[in-house]
Specification:
Serine Threonine Protein Phosphatase 5, Tetratricopeptide repeat, mainly alpha, elongated
Length: 269
């Protein structure tokens, strides 16, 4: 897997459940065990009471959800909430809880998969990125009408070296978001710009970087790929002013040692 400076954008669309789910309704693996059900209800109530998200009480709440799961080890929702509360106080075992919950749910919950994949992206090591890619592929397979799997595949494609497929998937995601009436945000334009750059479509990439500039102008990955697009378009059009701009953008990159090799090798001024 290629080491890349990037793209650990946590997905913001459809990552959470309905309010009914967070009230303990419409569960995927509702338990018939009285003790597990009682503990789960207590966990939901204490989660709501902790409006300030105090880490001490989040940990206590997570422990309650874990006890509910221990009382009924088929109770995937209890394990999901154990992970959710751990995520809120940045506990490293949130990923494990999400993974177990998704495994128990048997491909019934897109929300379990999206939360698991997003947490795996946040962890960002080689193994967790493989988990994220696997879950995005499962979303495409089991929930093909959702944009999330296609978007997630696109986000991970620079790490897996299949950016041609990533570009195909971001196009599918954009169409599905648009068809669903979801406004396309700048993070999607940013990802598309990177994928266009890595596919050597520099002129098209430039368009999407300029669309997302206001939100990502301080991001090293953005500036590395944006600079490359500016440089290559400047070279092809013999535009000296654009080449100067490319160098200025390049100079803003704080961690130049983290620029992916396939980009760094082309950033020759």
């Amino acid at each position: 897997m290629k080491k890349a400076l990037v793209i650990v954008l946590v997905l913001s669309i459809n990552l959470i459940f309905s309010q009914d789910y967070f009230k303990g309704k419409n569960l995927y693996c509702e338990s018939s065990n009285p003790e597990a059900a009682k503990l789960f209800k207590t966990g939901i109530e204490t989660l709501y009471l902790n409006s300030s998200l105090d880490p001490k009480y989040l940990k206590m709440t997570s422990d309650v959800f874990m006890k509910a799961f221990q009382a009924d080890t088929t109770f995937c929702d209890a394990m999901f909430f154990a992970g959710y509360t751990r995520r809120l106080y940045n506990d490293k075992y949130a990923l494990v809880c999400y993974y177990v919950a998704d495994s128990l749910a048997g491909n019934r919950s897109i929300e379990f998969k999206t939360n698991l994949a997003a947490e795996a992206l946040r962890v960002g090591n080689e193994q967790s990125l493989k988990i994220a890619r696997k879950k995005y592929n499962e979303i495409i397979e089991y929930f093909p009408d959702s944009p999330e799997g296609y978007y997630g595949f696109a986000i991970t494609s620079p790490n897996f070296g299949d950016t041609d497929k990533g570009l195909e998937n971001i196009e599918i995601a954009i169409k599905k978001y648009t068809d669903d009436g979801v406004k396309i945000k700048n993070d999607i334009y940013f990802i598309k710009g990177i994928l266009l750059t890595l596919n050597k479509l520099y002129g098209e990439g430039l368009i999407f970087f300029e669309k997302s500039y206001s939100d990502f102008k301080k991001d090293d990955s953005f500036n590395a790929h944006y600079s490359l697009c500016l440089l290559k378009v400047a070279e092809s059009s013999n535009d000296a002013r654009m080449k100067i701009k490319a160098k200025k953008i390049y100079d803003k990159i704080e961690h130049k040692d983290m620029i992916p090799e396939e980009v760094k090798d082309l950033l020759v001024f």
